[in-house]
Amino acid sequence: MLELLTLSLQCRCETFDGVNELVSNKVPQCIELSINSNSKVHQFTKNQEEVSIKLTTEIYKKENTLSLKYKNVQQGINYGNTRILSLRFYGCDIGLPVYDGIFTSWHDMKSYPSCLYMGYPGEWNMRFISPVAKNYGGICFG
Amino acid sequence: MAEFVLDKKEIANIKKEFYKVCPLDFIKEMILTIYGEESQTYAERFEISDMIAIEYKMVILDNEHLIQNKNVGDVGCASGLWPILFALHGAKSVIGIEPRPLYMQGAKKFIQKHNLPVILHLGDHNASLPILQRNNTDTLVLMAVDDLIPDFADFLHNCSNTEIENYILQCATVSDDCMKNTKNNAGFTMHQEAHNTCLRSGFNPYTKIMDENGFQSKLDDSFDLANTAYTKNYKSENYLQYILKQNKFRIISNKKPKLNLSEFSIFRHYLHNSLSYQWLTVSSK
Fold first, then answer.
1. What is the DSSP string of A36-85?
2. Partner-chain contact B202 A8, CB within 8 Å
3. Where residue A116 sits, what CATH number does that domain have?
């Protein structure tokens, strides 16, 4: 095993479009954070709700992909947007490398690099290299 | 400059020395206090890396006489590991200065609990000198900040006008080999433009996007990658020595162990092959 990694992703539910005010009262979404075979699901219940989803997982490979995706999506329902706020490894905010993630919208099946705002149901993936304390400056003592 | 190699046996011995002064349980408690509950799995399996062991030898073991019973300053002290180690090695007092507030609260809590003679301040290199002078600093430690401080030569010049006598420097330098056929050159600076997907938890003193503390901490849609581009300045070995001599510093020791930095950080893969760390002990007297 390369490491026993604890990571947490902080994100927010936005069911009201504050800019256009065109689509309001979207349905709070259900999201799933996963890495390898480990995952955790969170069901948002209200606008502006913030959550920190924590996962502890054994990492065996050098290259890994963290995934955040919408779950239980049904046709014809407007789901809330998900704004990714930060990613922490072992409690340490990794800072800007979180922009290495790519959002794929299921609405138009396009990929949006460096996008932390999931305006439609879809999947956000971020590749990272283990062990993280060695490969990302600023994570614990390195 | 001739490089030397620290073999695995030597590194293992350095690690033993490290754990004698800073036992594993102590450092695990430090991790949990500084980084919080989510660092539990990291703390459980923690062992010091080869890089920390090498830094420990170059900065502390080789300079114990400049640390014991001295007032020590550390500019860019990150989460406080090195100031704590200086205190464990008998420093009379340690001032740590760090521009990122991220882990300062936890580090201060740990220092207070163990009654260590360490004070941490929030501030950048410009703010550091008056604080260090007020504390009658004898020894100033500058670890891996030479490429981040944009005006490092000016900063050394300002240091030379203080009463601080001893300096322990860890600098990222480039070999002068590519200039061997040229004459009368003091050396060179290699500029590397990067964007701040870094490294040091989002800190970038050059960016236009800053919060009230001078940090790029707001990760929102206003983030503009192009505006966060900044330049790291790696000096050549000769040029660093030239700057030191111009500022009337006397070089007491100058070491460059052979390191394969690509093993230490993925961010160094794309850098010049001859870029490596160099440790110098210098005196202003």
1. TTEEEEEE--STT-EEEEEEEEEE-SSEEEEEEEEES--TT--BPEEEEE
2. no
3. 2.60.60.40
